[in-house]
Amino acid sequence: MARTTPHQHVHTRRTLTDGEPLYRRVASELLGELRTGTVPPGERLPGERQLAEHFGVSRETVRQALQLLRREGLVATDRRGSHAALPGAPVEAPAAAGFPLGARQPGRDPVARATVAWEAPPPGHAEPLGLAPGRPTLVHRYWSASPGGREQRTAVTSFSAVALAEVEELARYRDRADGTGAAELRRTYDWMRRAGLSLHHRDTITRIEGTPSVRVTRRVHDQHARPLELTELVMDAQQDVLVYEFMVPAAV
């Protein structure tokens, strides 16, 4: 949720106290914030206590407002809490939080697609991520081509059990990761930082013999040296330019 100043709280409380029932006005205000992308689709809402403080009302009023939005299919609740259920793609992250590695291509308009699957990771991914051989995990695949159809980049990312346990937005993909639907994981690094993780990247670039392509292997771990992600990107070094962007420590 957007942070509010004391002045904003006073304004919210004043506008919520006249006219229709209080919980309906809270539901309307919350729906407005969901529609403007303050909380992108699929992301967890703040807890009842935080929402009550945000709108200057009681927790019971917040419960009634959430119940109304659930009945209308605008908010969904599972064991992890409530989250926005509005249609549409999540709001874009700031430019510095691009995922996967190599997905952003400045000055170009590539054709791209991405999917996620719950499956055993590719060869060479399990051990660095601390996964037992054959153990399934969330695997993200990315492909891009020039507007003319020339393949430019392919990337496959495997996530560790630590990443799925610590980052709720990633964990939600397990039940819908069938390898066919579009994947909206562009804010992955932002989600990790919001979960309190500092991201440490180690990128290795090697030439692929007999081809104009290079392979970039990225390993990401947190401030406790726990592995989070392993990405392998293959790109045409003659046709493309790799731009590195480094993240700041965990958000507070």
Itemize the secondary structure elements and their pairings.
Layout (H helix, E strand, L loop, with lengths): L5 H11 L5 H14 L12 H8 L3 H13 L3 E4 L2 E4 L26 E9 L17 E9 L5 E9 L1 H6 L1 H4 L6 E5 L5 H7 L5 E8 L5 E9 L5 E10 L16
Helix pairs in contact: 2-4, 3-4
Explain this structure:
By secondary structure, the chain is an alpha+beta fold. The chain is 25% helix and 27% strand. The strands form two sheets. The chain has a seven-stranded antiparallel sheet with strand order 6-3-4-5-9-8-7. Strands 1-2 form a two-stranded antiparallel ribbon. Strand 8 and strand 9 form a beta hairpin. Helix 2 crosses helix 4 and helix 3 packs across helix 4. It is elongated and about 75 Å long. The N terminus and C terminus are likely disordered. It comes from Streptomyces werraensis.
Widest sheet: strand order?
A: 6-3-4-5-9-8-7
Averaged pLDDT, please?
A: 75
Structural class: alpha+beta
Number of strands: 9
| Helical fraction | 25-40%
